[in-house]
């Protein structure tokens, strides 16, 4: 955990460091290129140790949710191929909520970090208050919409009626966790912005450990089957969201919604929203195509995709540190420090990607068996594995640079390159795979195009220095 504005002597991690650090108001935005009077400054000369201090707790937070999903996938996989495929379809639909959560966390981190770096912790926390109102409203809306639309969505993504019916049942229950999921995302966003990654570690990890224990109990001894998996999801997300809400209430007395600030967040999040929509179109289409190749294919795709998401979010820990440190440095008008952080996190991301590739290669003959005993699913997973291994080092660099550019507020550029990679690479490739019956290899070739196009363009942008715009706002 990074040092707050003043040492925390309260002994209670839920309390602010001091009255002066409390967010008791919604602070006005400083003009671009200017900073507020400094009470909190970004640390000078960011070192690899400092990056690690932010990245390692963020790693646990990021890994907790996908690790729970992997446990859930393993538990459900032993019910049979149809329940496993149902979780693949239902989980893909629920990933829309997770995507909105990531969008909310990243957007809030960038805005809060700039204000923190400019010396105004109160304004940084105020961003979290308004983001939490937005998160709760969107989460409730998603939970309500899932009830009537679960059946048509599951049928659209599944090529098997039994899978579609099971997926819809799972989705109706799992969607009830959307408000908690999004509240936790908003909480993560403002806490990362003020460089507090310790409390989120306890909040998220505690909730997911509880749910990982509940999942096998509800699925097997209690006998709820697939529904038990969904209930365990709801428990984890609701408990985690409650922790972050409690932390926000302890941090500030002013919790009223301010539509003007929420509107600014929505406006500045537009590019991230479009970028995220492109990713969702890609992965929803990939699951739909994999489903058309058979139950075993979509089961293998689910295993590999969840491992990919797990690896991606773990690699994203470096990007979280980059968002916070780059945003704070630019908010404090220190472009040189922002560029130094960018160099270090890019190297760290690439090395981490190589480590993940080596681990995946070493476990290639064993990992699919952790999730299902079905030999045909194992055969399909073997088709995917070379793609998985080969892409990891490139993905490590891409995710690190995503963090740099989001922290810098350069999201318009990220929007444009993501749209290009999706429309010119991923989507054409997977639909060509469908029409020419190329199987899962064709689907994952599409993912390779998505990653490689983003790799080339983000490295070019990083080297150009056009992203390093200083000021409390951009």
From TrEMBL:
Which residue ranges are recorded for the region named Disordered? 1-41
Q: Which InterPro entries match?
A: DinF-like, MATE_fam, MdtK-like
Where in the cell does this protein reside? Cell membrane
Q: Which UniProt keywords apply?
A: Cell membrane, Membrane, Transmembrane, Transmembrane helix, Transport
Give a yes or no for keyword Cytoplasm in this entry: no
**Superkingdom as given in the UniProt entry:** Bacteria
Membrane topology listed for this record: Multi-pass membrane protein
TM segment ranges: 51-71, 83-106, 131-150, 170-190, 202-224, 230-249, 272-295, 307-333, 345-364, 384-405, 417-436, 442-460
Q: Which family is this protein grouped under?
A: Belongs to the multi antimicrobial extrusion (MATE) (TC 2.A.66.1) family.
The protein depicted here goes by the name MATE family efflux transporter
- The organism is Paractinoplanes aksuensis
């Amino acid at each position: 955990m990074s040092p707050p504005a003043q040492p925390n002597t309260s002994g209670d991690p839920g309390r602010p460091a001091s009255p002066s650090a409390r967010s008791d108001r919604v602070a006005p935005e400083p003009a671009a290129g200017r900073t507020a009077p400094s009470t909190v400054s970004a640390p000078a000369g960011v070192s690899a140790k400092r990056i690690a201090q932010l990245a390692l707790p963020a790693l646990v937070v990021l890994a907790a949710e996908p690790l729970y999903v992997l446990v859930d996938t393993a538990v459900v996989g032993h019910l049979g191929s149809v329940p496993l495929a149902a979780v693949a379809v239902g989980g893909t639909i629920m990933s829309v909520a997770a995507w909105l959560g990531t969008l909310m966390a990243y957007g809030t981190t960038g805005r809060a970090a700039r204000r923190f770096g400019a010396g105004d912790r109160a304004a940084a926390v105020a961003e979290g208050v308004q983001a939490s109102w937005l998160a709760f409203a969107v989460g409730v809306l998603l939970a309500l919409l899932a009830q009537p639309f679960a059946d048509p969505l599951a049928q659209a993504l599944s090529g098997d009626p039994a899978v579609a019916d099971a997926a819809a049942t799972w989705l109706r229950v799992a969607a009830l966790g959307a408000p908690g999921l999004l509240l936790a995302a908003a909480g993560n966003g403002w806490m990362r912005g003020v460089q507090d990654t310790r409390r989120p570690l306890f909040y998220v990890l505690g909730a997911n450990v509880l749910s990982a224990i509940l999942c096998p109990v509800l699925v097997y001894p209690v006998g709820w089957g697939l529904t038990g998996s969904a209930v365990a999801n709801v428990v984890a997300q609701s408990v985690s969201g409650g922790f972050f809400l409690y932390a926000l209430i302890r941090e500030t007395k002013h919790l009223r919604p301010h539509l003007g600030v929420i509107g600014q967040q929505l406006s500045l999040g537009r590019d991230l929203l479009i970028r995220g929509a492109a990713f969702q179109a890609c992965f929803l289409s990939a699951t739909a195509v994999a489903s058309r190749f058979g139950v075993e294919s979509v089961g293998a795709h689910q295993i590999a995709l969840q491992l990919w998401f797990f690896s991606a979010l773990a690699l994203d820990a470096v990007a979280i540190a980059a968002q916070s440190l780059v945003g704070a440095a630019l908010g404090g008008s220190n472009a040189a420090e922002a560029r130094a952080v960018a160099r270090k996190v890019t190297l760290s991301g690439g090395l981490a990607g190589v480590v993940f590739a080596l681990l995946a290669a070493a476990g290639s003959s064993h990992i699919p068996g952790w999730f299902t005993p079905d030999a045909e699913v194992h055969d399909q997973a073997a088709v995917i594995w070379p793609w998985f291994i080969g892409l990891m080092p490139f993905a490590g660099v891409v995710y690190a640079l995503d963090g740099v550019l989001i922290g810098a507020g350069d999201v318009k550029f990220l929007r444009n390159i993501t749209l290009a990679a999706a429309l010119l690479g991923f989507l054409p490739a997977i639909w060509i795979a469908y029409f020419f019956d190329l199987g899962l290899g064709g689907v994952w070739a599409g993912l390779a195009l998505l990653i490689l196009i983003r790799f080339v363009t983000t490295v070019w942008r990083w080297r150009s220095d056009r992203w390093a715009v200083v000021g409390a706002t951009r």
